[in-house]
Amino acid sequence: MSPVLSIHHVAPETVAVVESQLPAVARDHVLIRTRYSAISAGTESLIYRGRFPEELRQDSTIASLQGSFAYPFAYGYALVGEVIDVGPGVDASWSGRDVFAFHPHRDYAVAALRDVIPIPAHIDPRAALFLPNMESAVNFVMDAAPTIGERAMVFGLGVVGLLTTALLAAYPLGMLVTADPLRERRERSIHLGATLGMDPGDSAAMSRLERDVFAREPGGLDLAIELSGNPQALDQALRLSGFSGRVVVGSWYGHGGQTLELGTHFHRRRIEITSSQVSTLHPRLTGRWTKQRRIDVAWDAIARLAPQQLITHRFPITECQQAFELASHPADGVLQIVFEYS
C-alpha cells in the first residue's frame, strides 16, 4: 500500500500533510478506508491556533488521541469510511461496513474497535460525521434539563449551537432565543425553531432583550447554554439570568484565565453555573443512562434533522491549511468544513 496521508499540526496556525507507513492491524483493531472527515470548528480551531494547555493529554478516553499536544501531532475525532480489513480478534462481519471512528484526519485509519461505531443503514455517511456534535448537543440538553414554559437562550451558533437549538425547539418552551454575531447563523437558528436571533454585539438590542425578559414576573432567563467559546457570552448569560437561573457551559475556552463579572447579579440571584462535557454523563443520570443509550438518541436526532445540510465547504486533504484557516476565522456562509477522500 502507498504511504498513508494524515494531517499534522506542526506549529501554531500551521498544518501539513504527512506521509507515514500504515501500522499493522492489531488483534482488536480494524482498517478503515476514509470517505470523509470533519473539522470540529470549536475545539480544532483552538488547537489550530495553539490555545491548548500543553500539559493536557489529547483525550484519555479515545485510543487514537492518547498523545500530548507536543508538535507535531495529529488531532481530530470525526472520520467516516469503510472497513476493509480486520484484526484476528474482530468478527469478519465488520468487513465492508460503513463506520464512524473517533480518529484524526487521514486517508486510511487503523482504529481500535471500541472507538468505531457502525453507521445505521438509514443514515447518510455524510450525516454520520455529525455524531460527535449531535451527541454533544444531546448532552447539553440533558444537563440543562429544560422545563415546559421556560425562557431559554443559546449563545453561539456554530454547528453544535445550531443542533442544540434544534433539540431545544422540540420542547414546549416559553421562549427560545439565540445569539451569534453572524447573521446567517441567526437566520438558520430561526429556521430550526428559535423564537428570536440576537447579535450579541448589538448593545442596544441586547439591552432591549434584558428589559423584555425581566419585564415578565418573575423575570430573567430560566436557562442559558453557552457554546460560543467567548467568555463575554458567559457574562451576558449571567446578566440575563433570573433568580436561581441555570447557565450550562459547553464551551472549552482553552488555556489562560478568564475574567467574569461575578460581583453584581451572580451572587444575589443564586445563579447556577454548570460545566457540561460529552466525555461523561451527569451523575444524576448514570443509574439509567449509558453512553450507548445517549448515542442511540443522537442517531435518532441525526435521522430527523439531517445535519449534512450544515456542510458548507469541502476540501481534499492536500488543502488542509486553507481548510483550517477558514474554520478558525469563521464568516457568514461558513459552518461545517469536511475533507473528502477519493
In short:
This protein has 342 residues and is of the alpha/beta class. Helix content is 28%, strand content 25%. The protein has 2 domains: 155 residues, Quinone Oxidoreductase, Chain A, domain 1 (Alpha-Beta Complex); 152 residues, 3-Layer(aba) Sandwich (Rossmann fold).
Number of strands: 15
Note the main sheet.
7 strands, mixed
How is the quaternary structure best described?
A: single chain
What string, H for helix and E for strand, traces the elements in order? EEEHEEEEHHEHEHEHEHEHEHEHE
Helix content: 25-40%
Number of helices, counting only DSSP H or I runs of 4 residues or more: 10
Straight-line distance between termini: 15 Å
Mean pLDDT: 92
The residue ranges in which pLDDT falls below 50 over 5 or more consecutive positions are: none
